[in-house]
Write a structure and sequence with these properties.
Layout lengths: L2 H27 L4 H35 L2 H7 L6 H22 L3 E8 L11 E3 L5 H7 L7 E5 L9 E8 L6 E9 L2 H9 L7 E5 L15 H9 L4 E4 L2 E8 L4 E8 H49 L21 H60 L3 H18 L5 E3 H19 L3 E7 L7 E3 L4 H9 L9 E9 L3 E8 L6 H13 L9 H17 L4 E7 L3 E9 H5 L2
Length: about 575
Amino acid sequence: MSIMRKIVLGYVIVIFIPVLAFGYHYYTQIYGNMTQQFVESRQKILEQAYANMRTDFARIQSVHRVMQNNPYLTDYLDGVYESDADSVYALIRYISPLYTQSLYANPEIESLVVYKTKDRVLPITNLFRDRSMLDPRIEETVSSLKAGQGRWLRSDTNVSDPDLVYYQYIYNTQITERIGLLEIRVRNSLIHNFYAAAGVEANWKAFLLSDQGKLLTDEKPKLDDTTLHLLQSDDRAFFINRKTIVNQLKLEPLDVRVIVTGQVDDVFRSVKQKEVVLITMIVLLLIALSIAYYVLAATITKRILRLARHMRTLNDDNLRQHSIKRGGRFERDEIGFLTATYNTMVRRMDELINNVHRVELRNKEAAYQVLQAQIKPHFLYNTLETIRMVAEANNDKEVAEISFWFGKLMRYSLSSEREETVLAKEIEMVAFYMNIHKMRLQSRLTYEIDVSIDAERLACPRFLLQPLIENAIVHGASAVLRPVHIRLRAVETEQEVTIDVTDNANGIPPDKLLELHKRLAKHDDLGRSDETSGVGLRNVNDRIKTFFGGESRLEVISEPGKGTCLRITIAKRTVDGR
């Protein structure tokens, strides 16, 4: 069976037949149990409306949690801020946005006020008021509330749709002392929305009763004495007394009962008037939906069937793509995306099949280039070794030593395939590097290496120290005419390992040092052509943070006229974890 027939059959079984069966059952039972079903549905609507209102209550009450958990507001009410200026700053910067956000998120709220309990707290009339301004009757009512408890009150007890007020104490951060009483005034739109959701409209009325059945409002509902007596003695959620339909529900937050009443004649009159119209609308709507469903199903299934037929013809010798209309209205929907993805897959398969031979040739060429690249470093090493042997044969020790040191550096730079080494190997390489520069600068450059840690066990990235030594030589020894001393020192404590590269040259001017600190902290691009030292320092800083993690970092310490210290700090826990 094709997908089109399955969709049509599914529509008939799942939608068409159930709708007709339900309509017939509804029509035959409408006069038998219409009243009971109606009153039950009204009760469900009332319960659903109450559930929605409880959700609104919970959302509004959440404002207290937001304020209770806001450290700036609790500090403000606790009198932590020593001056009015600090209080005003905290109010403007942190507390006022909290009020604004709460009012914006809860449009039913008319006002938010906190009655402060401490005299030293700065009062703000529209936000924070003195406890003395609170109605004593309200204070007596809410004084027994415990932490985490709140109380809803009606602002006007003589109407059925009063404004509501919520009270809950705000405690200090340790929940040991009351520091304020939150008052949330809610417009009567909350009760209006509840009544509207409960279906209180036209001839339906709502009013409030106490648990004992006493009327709590001045409004006089049109109820006979029998109905009033049943409300006082009968605890059923709903009932019908002659021609009066009664639904009732306990509003726990307000500690009252809401009563919704209507007349049976009004219900059946509207049903009878709309019965023919309702049946006609159902039939017409069902026909319209059937046509629309068929058109939509046909639009989808035809494209799927065309794609399926094309896929059945696909093989190794036929990898043609499925044609799709460019610019069509369905090009970007899910089936269009599926077709485009299918075409991409077919095109890719064709490319892979046709390019296998070329890939093999490229692999062979790449392997040849790898072998050729391995030959070049060995030729360089052999040449340097030949120069050193010739220099030794001619008793030219300086050239022999430079060739030896340079060969070690080149072998260290080019031969290793790993990016990781140990600190001892790095120190050995920078010693060769400084020997070469000392041979060039003679007495203008001296250095010392003071390592008091087990450098053989400390793993580190390759070329960690060479950029720092180069920076000290280029911007230190090479920049002045007087002798410069470079010191490499490595020490450790219980928390960290510290490696210092220090020189006693001219140092870095304060403005350039500040700019360098900012760029290192913000990871700015230091790679401008006139800042080669910045490139090395940025590279070292990034590699330290990436390799060691934690609080590991590179610091630049300099004082004009006294020299510069480049300090690598490695968090001990990251060293031990390796």
